[in-house]
Amino acid sequence: MKNLPALNNRLAHLAVWLPALILLLLAGANGVFAQTGGNYDLTWWTIDSGGSGGGDGSKQVAGGTYELLSTIGQPEGSSGISGGAYTLQSGFWPGYISNHNLYLPIIIKLHPLPPDLTGSFTLSPAGPNFSAGSPVTINVVVTNSGEAAADAFWVDFYINPASTPTVNKRWNDLCGISPCFGLAWYVPSLGPGQSVALSSNNPARDYSVWYGSFARGTTNLHLYVDSWNPGTNIGSVDERNESNNLYTYPGGVTVTGLSVTNDEPAPPSLPDRPIQTKN
Fold it and tell me: Which CATH architecture does the domain made up of 117-256 adopt?
């Protein structure tokens, strides 16, 4: 019986692990039980219902700029359980996640936001009081704050219009006083984040009537960006925001004195403007 010491050794190990094995089998049949054996002692454990927050601060792990809330099926204990060479930490291993980077999936924006055109203008001299016939320069800035380029569009400048400008109403469609003056500019394109400067010194000549000064009685000044493309209700450019294309000069102006001599009938006769075809 020279193998007897080895057999006794195996029986001793079996005596240590057999209770744990029986408990595991019972767990599969009728539920979950605590187990002991060897150099460790697992006295209890739970599976919480989880959920976001739950009103219990112990169900949250926070670190840096993120917070990890409890989730369904998260093993939970009020503290770590240790014995011998083993340590069982509860939950999501406190002290581990907060010391490591957490990488989220990359989110790719497939399509840029549409163009968004806005405009404003200043006067030189600034006013608001002017003498009829005195030189005035109108300086316009149009900006595309969208993420996509804007195709060609028209910009109109209205002087005392009969009504508030809207899309597809050119300045000469809304003449309110005589003489009827106004300006138009054609912008071939405008990239995302870009601005273009326009001036009364260089309008689209065939579509503008301007002699460099305001007429007596001028009060209201307006600018409309993407003003003309009949057949649509949005102009030439499909924008992210179609409600911010009108700019009205704050407070208006006052023009006194003798009227300019270059009177024009209201409305003036101007050629038809090109229509932008949408692709």
Answer: Sandwich (2.60)
